[in-house]
Amino acid sequence: MSWLIRIHNADVFLNGKQVLNSIDWTMRKKENWAVVGVNGAGKTSFMKLIFGELIPIDGGEVRWFDNEKHEPLIDARKRIGFVSADLQENYVPSTLCKNVVLSGFFSSIGLYKKATHKQIEIAAYWMEFLEIQNLSNEPIGKISYGEARRILLARALVNLPDLLILDEPCSGLDIPTKELFLHTLEKLAKTKTQLIYVTHHIDEILPLTTHVLFLKNGTIFSKGTKSKMLTGQQLSRAFDCHLELKKTSGRFWITGSRLGKSRNSINRPN
User: Are 81 and 156 in contact (CB under 8 A)?
Assistant: First the structure.
């Protein structure tokens, strides 16, 4: 079966510290993955490895889109979209939303080239698809966080990416805004774009997700189909605390939690 990403025996160091250890993972066609772990588990480093911002040491390798050879990284990146809360902060607040979306064609923060008529048409299509066309002439600094997150989603989609990486995209959103954003993502299930969704909130894992990967201390703790991974036992082991969950309307919700002995034991003074 064709694959989008294949990582083999990847050890990654950042500022002299090992952040990922012996990563082996393949994402195939027609799969949508959730990457789950506590803060500090290595999720962001894992995404940077996929995107080519971090390189494994000798012996490790990352391959993209069925290419067994070392293809130019710029060619792979043209087929990958990226959305994160941090990206939103990098734009000058006065930047018009339509220009934020158009900047996706040039992989730039801001619009420094004149867009073609065709590019303007494509940007308008995705803004309409995501129901944000009314924000076209608004400065990104004047709209809500949730609206800005959908603007960044449109920015990522203008190049019709084969893979879309969403790195904790609901960070900073309130519950109604988060649910609207997640509903927007469900619409992408009708397109060819496949997703990697990074989170530590189980309720953000959508029905379109087919597989789940748990990261723990920079290693892949477990991975597999969503039905096998999203169980109380698997979650409890991955998060080091007892968790209970329930499936409702195609999504999973934490219904109970209890700290394990390792986290609940505190030496108290006599």
Answer: yes
Write out the two tokens for 252.
Answer: 């999973």
Asked if pLDDT for residue 261 goes beyond 70, the answer is no
For 17-60, the pLDDT digits (tens) are: 999 999 999 999 999 999 999 988 999 999 999 988 899 998 88
* SS3 label, residue 207: coil
Q: What angle do CA 27, 213, 58 make, to 5 degrees?
A: 65
- Residue 182: which residues within 8 A CB-CB, separation 6 or more? 170, 204, 206
- Between CA 141 and CA 148 the distance in angstroms is 8
What is the token pair recorded at 121? 């048409």
Secondary structure (3-state) at 146: helix
The radius of gyration computed from the CA coordinates of the chain, to the nearest angstrom, equals 20
Amino acid letter at 225?
A: T
Q: How many CA atoms lie within 13 A of 161 on its CB side?
A: 29
